[in-house]
Structure formats: C-alpha cells, structure tokens
Write a structure and sequence with these properties.
By secondary structure, the protein is α/β, with parallel strands linked by helices. It folds into 2 domains: 7-47 and 153-225 and 329-391, 3-Layer(bba) Sandwich (FAD/NAD(P)-binding domain), CATH 3.50.50.60; 78-150 and 227-325, D-Amino Acid Oxidase, subunit A, domain 2 (D-Amino Acid Oxidase, Chain A, domain 2), CATH 3.30.9.10. It contains 9 helices and 19 strands. It comes from Solanum tuberosum.
C-alpha cells in the first residue's frame, strides 16, 4: 500500500540564497516548510556559492536602495540569531566618467532615497584612499556608507540552519521535474525525478538559471531569463601593500561605470589577492558550462593597470571561479505569482541578474509574504511582474546603458 503523501504549508524549490531565505521566513511564521534542492546543499553549480558578494545601496534604479537597506537589517538580525558574522561592512565607491548616465542616476537615486552620498574628484580620491586608486581627469568618485562584503556559502548555510531551527524540513539531491495542481487537496503537487511526491498548500520556485526551463515545462509560460556563465577573477597585490587593500584599512567595495562594468571587493577571503571581475558573461544553459573565462581579459587588465598602477599585478589573474547569472532583458528581478491554473498558489523568484544576492533576505521575506498573505507591504512589485515583458519585450524602460554585457 502506497504511503500517504505528507502535506506541507509551503514547499520551496531551490536552496540557493533566495530559497533558503524564503524557507527561513515561512518557517519563522510557523508554516510547515519543505526546502528542496536538486543538487547537494551548498553546491557550486548555481549562483549562491563562492567567497564574497558585494552589498551596496548605490543603484541607478531608485527602487533597489530601499530593498538593500531593509535587507541590511535582516542580515544583521540573522547574524544575531546564528551567532557569527557573514556581512563585513566597508564603504562603497562607484567611479566613472562624470557624464556617465548610469553614474549620474546613482547619485540621483541616493538623494531620492536619503542615502548620504559624496561626489569626489581625483585629488580627493587620492587623499581619501591612500593614493591607491587613480582616476582620469574627467572621472568622479561617488562614496556611500552602505557597502560591504557578504560571505555567500556561509550565508546560505546560515539561513538553512535557522530554517531548521524553526522546524523546516530540508531535502537535497531532489530534482523537481513537475509541479501540478493537487486534485485531492486543492494545493500543489511537486514531483521529483526519482518519483517522490510532495504536497503543499503553496509553492515557491527559486531555481536560478533553471527557472526558464522549469516554468516552461510546467506551464508553457516563457519567462525571459537568460542563464549566463560568468567568471570571477582574483589578482595579486604587490608585496608590502597587501594590508592597504583590506576592509581593516577602509578599502571599499567598488564598481566602475563606463564601456565595461567592472566591480570588486577588498582583499578578504584570500590574503594578498583582490577580487576584480567584469559584470557579464556567456549565454548558456547551466548544463553547458565551460568552466573557463567567458570574456576577453584585455579590458580588465587595462582597467587594473590604469586604476591601480603597479600596486596590483595586471598581467594575469592568479585565481578564477565560475558562477552563473540569470539575466532578464532589463536586469530587474522577477517576483510574482505564476498565475494560470495555479493562481496565487505558486510564486516565482528569479532573474536576479548577477546583483540579487545582497537582497536575498528581503526577497525571501517578500516571497513568504506572497504565499502566506497574498501580498507584501515591504516593496512595490510593479517593476518585478512577469507581465511587464508582454507590453515590452525589453521590460522596464531605463535611460542608461545596460550593466551586464554578454560575450557570445
């Protein structure tokens, strides 16, 4: 006789940062929660692993800073509960040509969101950052206090542990191949590749680069989320200068606007090395990764040489790590009810476009609000609806250039 299927209040599919934060939030609200992951927990095949992620509130779009600030509070709350740190604070520095539209939008966005911001020239930059960063004459620096580094694998583990403490059930190596309406309960039936079935009153789908494929297979709906393979690079700091580039010395997390969007973090996870990658990558399915550099390194080498001189060895990176992005045409998130036959029973969170990790805690809260209450009071979701692509295939209109470049 077949054993009865256990019924959960919420089933979360995908245990990266978004799914783990969601499971923590739903279990915190006394919902019987099941978190499913297709691979081992804390695997390196998606977007939530590695040694560091930037947190910053300086965005050209004025709807992200509020989310970052709310997320920062939730990061601190979680750290307090778990008893260790995953978030290390330092200033955020954005640099670029003074006439760059995106950088000007960053300044405007900070002002609209009451985020203290200072615009500095190359001379002030020299004084403030120990002569470490050189700017061309026509470039400016934009300094905000809301910056820092998050340890991603440690952070995902933290939220999974807190979810377990709240009574959540976690199951890895469980690839989901189908989601359908449960005719017996009126909820949702989730089926694993191995034949196991799970019944939930509600379901949240946060499967990163697998989102488009899974949703298309379930409903026929195409959400324009393109997986990109990206590569993170670490570069060697000149001997004797290693401590200058650390958080302890006040070195910032940074982003550079211009022809190529380049970002980086202070030396932290690998002493003597600094992380400086290009924000972009190669379109591919998650099963089609090369694990090799996805873009030409020439613009990056040139940028390092120009901005750090001989303080950072720009001849070649000494360490590389592969990661996946899930990019929407407008680089904005998808947070919405799936609709159709599922109505409000299935919520999707995806398309975080290489900049969502920092907002994992608030996204998890929003997704939990949607499945429990049917709405969220934390954020206006207008910019994150699936239907925005029906009106315009490019999604939300913006008056500045895309930050993610795809190298074909």
């Amino acid at each position: 006789m077949e054993k009865p299927i256990e019924i959960f209040d919420v089933i979360v599919i995908g245990a990266g940062i978004m799914g783990s934060c969601t499971a923590y939030q739903t279990s915190k609200r006394n919902q019987k929660t099941l978190l499913l992951e297709q691979f081992d927990f804390l695997h390196h095949l998606g977007s939530s692993h590695g040694e560091s992620r930037t947190i910053r509130a300086s965005y050209p779009e004025d709807y992200y800073p509020k989310m970052v600030l709310k997320s920062e509070t939730l990061w601190r709350d979680a750290e307090e509960q778990i008893g260790y740190k995953v978030y290390f604070k330092t200033p955020q520095l954005d640099i670029g040509p003074s006439n760059n539209k995106a950088l000007k939008a960053v300044i405007s966005s900070c002002n609209k969101n009451s985020i203290p911001v200072r615009v500095i020239d190359r001379n002030t930059m020299f004084q403030e950052f120990d002569d470490l960063i050189q700017l061309p004459d026509n470039w400016i620096g934009v300094v905000t206090e809301y910056g820092g580094v998050i340890k991603p694998t440690k952070a995902v583990s933290m939220f999974q542990t807190l979810a377990i403490k709240n009574g959540a059930f976690l199951k890895d190596n469980m690839e989901v191949v189908e989601i359908k309406k449960d005719s017996l309960t009126g909820g949702v039936l989730v089926m694993g590749k191995n034949g196991e079935k799970f019944s939930g009153k509600k379901c949240v789908v946060t499967v990163g680069p697998w989102m488009n494929k899974l949703v298309r297979n379930i409903t026929g709906i195409v959400i324009p989320i393109q997986p990109l393979e990206t590569t993170v690079f670490y570069w060697k700091i000149k001997k004797g200068y290693e401590s200058k580039f650390t958080i302890g010395n006040g070195f910032p997390t940074f982003a550079s606007y211009g022809e190529t969007y380049i970002y980086g973090t202070p030396s932290l996870e690998y002493p003597g090395l600094i992380k400086i990658p290009i924000h972009g990558g190669r379109p591919c399915e998650p099963t089609d990764r090369t694990w090799e550099p996805t873009q030409s390194l020439d613009p990056l080498k040139k940028w390092i040489q120009e901005k750090f001189g001989d303080l950072v060895d720009s001849t070649r990176p000494v360490l590389m790590q592969s990661c996946m992005y899930s990019v929407t045409p407008d680089e904005d998130f998808v947070i919405d009810f799936l609709g159709g036959e599922f109505g409000d029973d299935v919520v999707v969170g995806g398309g975080f476009s290489g900049h969502g990790f920092k907002m994992g805690p608030i996204v998890g809260k929003i997704l939990s609000d949607l499945v429990i209450d049917g709405e969220t009071k934390d954020v206006e979701l207008m910019h994150f609806r699936i239907k925005r692509f029906e009106k315009n295939s490019k999604g939300n209109l913006k008056n500045f250039d895309d930050q993610v470049s795809s190298a074909h």
